[in-house]
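Suppose you are handed a protein chain with no further information: no name, no annotation, nothing but its sequence. What can you learn? This example shows the usual starting point.
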Amino acid sequence: MSEDLDKRVNAFRADLADSRLEGRVEATRFVEGRPARVTAATAPLRRAPRSDAPVDTEALRGEDVLVFESTDEGWVWAQLLADGYVGWLAEGALGEPEAAPTHRVCAPRTLVFPGPDIKRPPLDALPMGALVTVTGQAEDHNARYGLIRPFGAVVGQHLRTPGEVEADFVAVAERFLGVPYLWGGKTVLGIDCSGLVQVACQMAGIWAPRDTDMQERELGTRLAGIEALQRGDLVFWKGHVGIMIDGERVVHANAHHMMTAIEPLAEMVARLEAKGVFVTSVRRLRA
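A reasonable first move is to predict its three-dimensional structure. Written in structure tokens, the prediction is:
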């Protein structure tokens, strides 16, 4: 009876499944997901309920999730609502979904101070894309601040309302130059190729799925080849994606440089073709 559903973005196992999938998949038990919200700065989404299990992606502060199962060891099996990804999160990284987020972090990384004073030791650091609830404003001789729930202050120039989006998602990706390559990463502490595309698109108000194969299927329109490329075109290989910054150069998080780097597309194509890896498609997000 089970449909051919992608387990990365559909919560079902042989013993347990999302109640919304009842009648579409086979499972011993169906449950309704419990709403929760990420309260940690980042929360690795793992393939198994172990701290050494592989990480498939990272949830960022303020993301809403549905929890289907909790273990005695402090893990939850959950689904991220932003992109649908399913996996295991540390239960301590979650809290109740209280007041709705009002602002998104727009800097590559921002500090959370105990109060409106940049000279005080920060409590935490939040990545680009994290969501916070601003409850008030404050100002001192150094900066203006947003006062956030449950406590803390973030400098105002690092916050934007969700409706304020970047005009150029490529410029967002370029702000990650030099960031270490990290499988499943989505922050300046480490990022992978599809994570770079997803975060950059998100900041520009463009929804993007998490993995390269999903992005290749769902983003933009297909071009005939790698000729006449322009800024913002996406070039795909099996398991990899790069963003064109002009007609000749590509920015991508990659394991060759082990960081986010810019290089001539022709050199990259030649290097990969020498390994038997060829461009699978080129897609344009905007006309």
